[in-house]
Amino acid sequence: MEGVAGGQALIMPEWLQAGGWGLLAGFALVLGALAGYTLRMPQRLIASVMAFGAGVLMSAVSYELIEEAHRRAGLAPAVVGAVSGAVLYTVCNVLLARRGARHRKRSGDRHPSLQEGSGTAIALGAVLDGVPESLVIGASLLGGGTVSMVTVAAVFISNVPEGLSSAAGMRRAGRTRTYVFGLWIGIAGVSGLSSLAGYALLGQAPAAVLAGIIALAGGAILTMIADTMIPEAFESSHLLTGLITLAGFLVAFAVSKAGG
């Protein structure tokens, strides 16, 4: 963007860029929710989109997170971070499952909106799914670097089916528009703040610590894919799930290599 004085470009501060990219990725939840709530989409189509999004995220975890953590600090921080992220996510997910958010990405009759008092658990579950992704987006700007567009694209693409699937289930469970869109707009805002936090809090972190946190996010995301996204995809797509997931993985892999 060009400034009006002196012909010099106006450069947006990196902290603002971090929050903006995180908000953009999180806004995909709102777009997905809009489609899921207003359109009568076949269950198999919803599941197929979820499978594709899972493949995209798998590629991002492999080539943008775990590999990046290894490049920064070696194998040990990458492994320790990934395992820590997986354990932390699993513990939190188990606690949320007991509160009614086990099937928060389901779009059919098993969606937790059918359970009384599960709204808070659904919201917390969505935050749990999105925070690691957003932290990584913000951290990618550290050191004067540019945001990882592959990671942003991967999170954006994977967020669309999450919002779509959950909103479709909420609609069938009788949730109001105010509830559904208020929830996802709020989660999108949290995504932006999490990305901003990733930039602000990790700026002075040693290389090994930063690598460990990046890997932690990768481990949490991969565990989330296995615990929530793949089950939703398999619910309706069944034997096509693997092929659709592979397609998402390869598309993201190709974009990653093209950008590299």
Structural class: mainly alpha
C-alpha end-to-end distance: 25 Å
DSSP helix count?
A: 8
Question: How is the main sheet built?
Answer: none
Helix coverage percent:
over 70%
Flag low-confidence runs. 1-9
The average pLDDT value, as a whole number, equals: 80
Beta-strand fraction estimate: under 5%
Shape summary: globular
Number of strands: 0
Quaternary: single chain
Q: Secondary-structure element sequence?
A: HHHHHHHH
Based on CA atoms alone, the radius of gyration comes out at 18 Å
Quick structural summary:
By secondary structure, the chain is mostly helical. The protein has helices at residues 14-38, 43-73, 75-101, 119-139, 149-172, 177-201, 207-237, 241-259.
What features would you highlight for this structure?
globular; 260 residues; 78% helix; mainly alpha
Q: What would your notes on this structure say?
A:
With 260 residues, the chain is mainly α. Helix content is 78%, strand content 0%. The protein has helices at residues 14-38, 43-73, 75-101, 119-139, 149-172, 177-201, 207-237, 241-259. Helix 1 (14-38) packs antiparallel against helix 4. The two termini are 25 Å apart. Mean pLDDT is 80; it is low at 1-9.
